């Protein structure tokens, strides 16, 4: 049964989307809500079914019945394995959560909102399931087109328009670069199916063409994933998009870029680059570390809470890029586990920020000083979320982080563990600081630059209903998501299961077997890995570090004032430079993009010879 | 960054970029000597398998029809997005009371000669568009090209200086439905394949004989669905943009 | 000479990027994006072309004649639709930008922020 | 490579460069149209009539209508703005 439903998770939202768009303007609100929810729940269930089926053995579904002929692919396949289908399930689940969250407060425009959310979901799900490189780019664009429009949902304000323009232009250029990369691979191999391209490249020496194709494809996906210096659009877009959309952006869309890089590396380039693993690892771990550090520092420097959360996402994406770049199954398993934990946590945190925005019409940390006292439950949720970001043992994010640390040690990159601890401490600490200031009224009330609060205030409400009352759903949904973070990683067998599927993910020769020749491949059996005392130690350090960072942010002003000028001035100057670089000017962003991709290209051309 | 710094940095980065691209392109087979595995296979087998004389259409609407599904929904998503972004806000009112004023003020530049040409153009465009949509599997063209040409018909009314007449011929509700129904139909035709022959998007129509109007299985149906969607989508996008030029600013 | 089509593709990509970076008007930025994307059309069709081959339409040519690669043509068709849709979306944003900021110069498009 | 192909390639290269270098958006929109025709011609001589048809409908009507409408709206707003400023000045 399961293989037959393979296309339905995409088709269901593709049918429901036009329905709400066409009928929505005449239909009552409940109709649009029900169609949206039904389609999202159905897609979640269908993806889950596929994931469960693929757990037995992964399979390819040939659309239109165009199975490979004469040993060559002719049609398009959905190549469904557990990690891909699992990620699709997770995307659809977050869409369901976001739609539930917006049920009672969001001022949805005549079915257009629901329609775009469903198309966005279809794009993400198709992106996770497809086995064809061009089809991957097509679904990337479905996702992007819906995302650009949703970012600028509040057209009556300035920020959303500017954020959406930067988002749209940067990501489009990334996508055009990917078309060039795809063309190069097609010219070389005469194939578009990822398994077949991988098989055709085989273990031949990777020449310039293959390397440039890889750089352009990775460049496009890393633009979506917001790797430094391709990341500038992210904070602009996340700071201004409506909350339910931010939930999807930070929770899963950005991470899909990392997924695509992993998918492409293992299924297309792993064979031809097998002699250069050390160099590939060095280049992309370097990129990941840069992203993680810049994101963590910028996160701490923000007072606009949505921007703060956005930079925390960049920082975590840096960790994920490192995890993929270790080039081991364990790294993939760590990313998979952490991705789920981080996605749920970040979704919940954005939802908490949404409650504040709804209630007080501002999202500036200092503006909100102490005003959160009347919302103790939201404060509790935010605090728990912060601790999850700091990877408090023994919950899901901790599990993911432990796997990443083991993968780092296994790949000989022990020092990266320090970076991971720094990221957890800084991002967790920044959110704890916000929690302390807003919900407990700790720390000074005046920020260093009062003028900056302007950007965080809303002229208009995205909500219906009176702001003196918070709809229970707005608290319930993030609470459920956080309970998920607490429990998922503790389910016996969950993390070892991910490890086994990740081991399957990196078997690129077996991938070609089951996609192109319909072989039945079973999941490899691994010895269960143990969480060592070291892992607990690292996470305790990061949790304590987060508390320290938070107290420094809240009560540290006297300390900072007493710093010798020789130390204080450079720090302030550096912060000023960092703010200045994130200028919001699209010309700057594209200059950075060109330089970034050019440098990555140059380094790869030299390092992978 | 200040403008000179930005341009200077781009001069270096762009030069680097073009070098990287050209180094990659050196690995390409020289122009005119493609060793197209996939394309050759399609060229060899398509005629016998699908009875379409335009192989590009066969790829578009059958072999790689799933890409086209995605493509149609990129279009649908962007049109929905444009409707969302250009929606009228409270306070932005259409100046209904000055309808004739709009006619004058909008496109008054059209001379009588241009108006005449435009009016003659309309039936030609509609006929040409319909031809392209229905002959996709036989000759160059198909749902997309035909759809845009069809959408250009009402635009010719606009050229004739009759903005409101254009909106009467093609009201927004009609365009939205055409857009949505076309997109949904494309997905539904695929679903028929799943229900009747067991695989999504598998052909379940008779193939007919090559060169005939009703041949090549489901391709004409898919082409029609796409034509419907594209015509609605483009005209809706144009209308949204043109309406913007008719909206007054919120007063105060 | 056989490399010229590919050179044109690379040139269009970078020249289009220059247009985006140097633009003082967002309408111009969007138009430059169209040039960036045109590079992929030229590259794809250049890759699929075979010397002396016919278009992949088999109505009135003998079945033995050489045909150019139809697959790249389908990819370009999809590409062109993406170009039109992205341009429409971005121009809609530009129109709104002018309403909110009173300018379409990227230099003026800086909402207050830290 | 045939002479026609060479001419088409040169036209596309020059056209694309011109589109980027023309400073004034309205004139740029016109040059973009010419660039579209050059691409169409290129697709014909590359034996891709389907693509050529697509390109001509998109660059011939599809994009120009949108660009012109956007420019018109922007100009209208600028006029209104100027008028308001003059009124304020009086």
Tell me briefly what this model is:
The complex is a heterotetramer of chains A (609), B (252), C (114) and D (90). With 114 residues, chain C is mainly α.
Can you offer a commentary on this structure?
The complex is a heterotetramer of chains A (about 600), B (about 250), C (about 110) and D (about 90). Chain A is mostly helical. Chain A has 23 helices and two strands. Chain A has one domain. A two-stranded antiparallel sheet of chain A has the order 1-2. The mean pLDDT of chain A is about 90. Chain B is an all-alpha fold. Helix content of chain B is about 70%, strand content about 0%. Chain B starts with a helix and ends in an 8-residue tail after the last helix. The model of chain D has no long low-confidence stretch (mean pLDDT about 90). Classes of the chains: A mainly alpha (about 600), B mainly alpha (about 250), C mainly alpha (about 110), D mainly alpha (about 90). Chains in contact: A-B, A-C, B-C, B-D, C-D.
Got a strand count of chain D?
Answer: 0
Which chains make the largest contact?
A: A-B, 84 and 71 residues
> How many structural domains does the protein architecture of chain A include?
1
Oligomer: heterotetramer
Structural class of chain A: mainly alpha
Total helical segments of chain A: 23
Number of strands of chain A: 2
The share of residues in extended strands of chain A comes to under 5%
* Strand/helix succession of chain D: HHH
The helix fraction of chain A, in percent, is over 70%
Q: Quote the distance from N terminus to C terminus of chain A.
A: 47 Å
Q: How much strand of chain D?
A: under 5%
Topology:
The complex is a heterotetramer of chains A (609), B (252), C (114) and D (90).
Chain A: H1 8-23, H2 29-56, E1 59-62, E2 77-80, H3 82-102, H4 112-129, H5 133-151, H6 158-189, H7 194-201, H8 208-225, H9 232-240, H10 243-269, H11 277-301, H12 305-325, H13 329-360, H14 376-389, H15 396-410, H16 416-439, H17 473-488, H18 494-505, H19 508-516, H20 533-555, H21 557-561, H22 565-581, H23 586-607
Helix pairs in contact in A: 1-2, 1-4, 2-3, 2-4, 3-4, 3-10, 3-13, 3-17, 4-5, 4-10, 5-6, 6-7, 6-8, 6-9, 6-23, 7-10, 7-19, 8-10, 8-23, 9-12, 10-12, 10-13, 11-12, 11-16, 12-13, 12-16, 13-14, 13-15, 13-17, 13-18, 14-16, 14-17, 16-20
Chain B: H1 3-25, H2 37-50, H3 55-63, H4 65-85, H5 99-107, H6 112-134, H7 143-159, H8 163-169, H9 172-197, H10 219-244
Chain C: H1 4-22, H2 26-48, H3 70-101
């Amino acid at each position: 049964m399961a293989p037959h439903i393979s296309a339905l998770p995409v088709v269901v939202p593709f049918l429901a989307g036009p329905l709400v768009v066409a009928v929505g303007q005449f239909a009552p609100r409940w109709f649009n809500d029900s169609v949206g929810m039904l389609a999202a729940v159905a897609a979640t269930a269908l993806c889950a079914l596929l994931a469960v089926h693929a757990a037995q053995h992964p399979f390819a579904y040939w659309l239109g019945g165009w199975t490979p002929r004469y040993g060559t692919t002719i049609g398009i396949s959905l190549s469904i394995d557990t990690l891909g289908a699992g990620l699709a399930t997770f995307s659809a689940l977050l869409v369901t959560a976001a739609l539930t969250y917006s049920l009672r407060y969001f001022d949805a425009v005549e079915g257009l909102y629901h329609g775009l959310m469903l198309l966005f979901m279809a794009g993400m799900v198709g992106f996770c399931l497809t086995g064809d490189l061009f089809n991957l780019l097509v679904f990337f664009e479905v996702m992007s087109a819906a995302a650009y429009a949703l970012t600028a949902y509040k057209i009556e304000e300035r920020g959303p328009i500017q954020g959406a323009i930067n988002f749209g232009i940067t990501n489009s250029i990334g996508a055009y670069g990917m078309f060039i990369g795809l063309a190069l691979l097609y010219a070389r191999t005469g194939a578009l199916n990822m398994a077949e391209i991988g098989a055709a490249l085989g273990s031949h020496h990777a020449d310039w063409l293959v390397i440039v194709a890889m750089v352009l494809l990775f460049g496009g996906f890393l633009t979506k994933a917001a790797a430094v210096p391709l990341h500038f659009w992210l904070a602009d877009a996340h700071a201004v998009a409506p909350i339910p959309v931010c939930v999807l952006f930070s929770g899963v869309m950005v991470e899909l870029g990392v997924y695509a890089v992993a998918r492409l590396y293992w299924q297309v380039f792993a064979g031809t680059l097998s002699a250069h693993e050390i160099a590939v690892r060095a280049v992309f771990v370097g990129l990941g570390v840069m992203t993680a550090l810049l994101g963590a520092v910028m996160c701490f420097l923000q007072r606009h809470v949505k921007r703060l959360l956005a930079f925390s996402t960049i920082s975590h994406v840096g960790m994920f890029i490192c995890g993929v770049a270790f080039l081991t199954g364990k790294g993939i398993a760590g990313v998979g586990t952490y991705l789920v934990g981080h996605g749920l946590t970040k979704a919940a945190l954005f939802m908490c920020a949404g409650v504040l925005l709804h209630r007080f019409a501002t999202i500036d940390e200092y503006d909100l000083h102490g005003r959160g006292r009347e919302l103790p439950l939201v404060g509790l949720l935010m605090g728990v979320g912060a601790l999850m970001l700091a990877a408090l043992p023994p919950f899901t994010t901790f599990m993911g982080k432990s796997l990443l640390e083991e993968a780092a040690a296994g790949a000989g990159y022990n020092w990266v563990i320090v970076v991971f601890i720094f990221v957890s401490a800084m991002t967790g600490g920044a959110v704890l600081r916000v929690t302390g200031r807003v919900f407990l009224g700790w720390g000074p009330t005046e920020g260093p630059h009062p003028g900056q609060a302007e950007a965080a205030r809303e002229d208009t409400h995205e909500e219906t209903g009176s702001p003196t009352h918070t709809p229970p759903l707005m608290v319930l949904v993030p609470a459920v998501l956080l309970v998920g973070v607490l429990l998922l990683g503790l389910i016996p067998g969950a993390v070892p299961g991910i490890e086994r599927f990740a081991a399957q993910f990196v078997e690129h020769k077996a991938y070609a077997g089951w996609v192109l020749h319909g072989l039945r491949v079973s999941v490899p059996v691994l010895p269960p890995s143990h969480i060592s005392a070291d892992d607990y130690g690292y996470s305790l350090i990061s949790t304590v570090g987060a508390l320290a960072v938070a107290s420094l942010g809240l009560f540290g002003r006297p300390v900072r004032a007493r710093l010798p000028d020789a130390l204080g001035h450079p720090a302030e100057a550096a912060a000023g430079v960092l703010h200045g670089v994130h200028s919001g000017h699209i010309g700057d962003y594209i200059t950075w993009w060109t330089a970034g991709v050019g440098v990555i290209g140059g380094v790869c051309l030299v390092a992978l010879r | 960054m200040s403008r000179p710094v930005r341009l200077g940095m781009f001069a270096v980065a762009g030069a680097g970029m073009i070098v990287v691209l050209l180094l990659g392109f050196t690995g390409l087979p020289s122009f005119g000597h493609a060793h197209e595995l996939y394309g050759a296979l399609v060229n060899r087998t398509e005629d016998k398998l699908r009875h379409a004389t335009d192989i590009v259409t066969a790829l578009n609407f059958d072999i790689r029809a799933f890409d086209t599904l995605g493509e149609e929904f990129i279009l649908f998503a962007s049109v929905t997005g444009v409707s969302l972004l250009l929606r009228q806000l409270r306070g932005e009112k259409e100046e209904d009371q000055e309808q004739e004023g709009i006619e004058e003020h909008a496109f008054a530049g059209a001379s009588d000669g241009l108006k005449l040409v435009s009016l003659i153009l309309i039936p030609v465009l509609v006929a040409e568009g319909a031809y392209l949509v229905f002959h996709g599997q036989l000759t160059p063209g198909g749902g997309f090209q035909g759809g845009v040409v069809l959408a250009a018909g009402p635009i010719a009314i606009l050229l004739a200086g009759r903005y409101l007449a254009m909106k009467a011929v093609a009201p927004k509700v009609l365009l939205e439905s055409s857009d949505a129904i076309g997109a949904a139909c494309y997905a539904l035709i695929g679903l028929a394949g799943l229900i009747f022959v067991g695989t999504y998007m598998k052909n379940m129509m008779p193939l007919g004989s090559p060169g005939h109007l009703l041949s090549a299985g489901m391709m004409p149906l898919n082409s029609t669905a796409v034509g419907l969607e594209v015509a609605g989508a483009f005209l809706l996008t144009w209308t949204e943009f043109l309406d913007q030029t008719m909206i007054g600013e919120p007063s105060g | 000479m056989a490399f010229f089509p590919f050179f044109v593709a690379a040139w269009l990509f970078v020249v289009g990027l220059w247009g985006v970076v140097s633009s003082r008007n967002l309408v111009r930025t969007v138009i430059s994006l169209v040039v960036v994307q045109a590079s992929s059309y030229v590259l794809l069709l250049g890759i699929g072309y075979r010397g002396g081959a016919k278009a992949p339409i088999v109505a009135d040519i003998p079945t033995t004649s050489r045909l150019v690669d139809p697959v790249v043509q389908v990819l370009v068709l999809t590409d062109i639709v993406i170009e039109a849709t992205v341009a429409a979306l971005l121009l809609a944003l530009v129109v709104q930008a002018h309403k909110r900021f009173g300018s379409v110069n990227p230099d003026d498009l800086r909402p207050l922020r830290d | 490579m045939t002479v026609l192909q060479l001419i088409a390639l040169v036209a596309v290269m020059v056209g694309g460069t011109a589109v980027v270098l023309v400073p004034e958006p309205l004139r740029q929109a016109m040059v973009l149209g010419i660039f579209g025709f050059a691409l169409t011609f290129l697709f014909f001589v590359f034996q891709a009539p389907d693509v050529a048809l697509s390109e001509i409908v998109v660059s011939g009507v599809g994009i120009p209508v949108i660009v012109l409408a956007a420019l018109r709206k922007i100009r209208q707003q600028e006029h209104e703005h100027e008028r308001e400023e003059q009124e304020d000045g009086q």
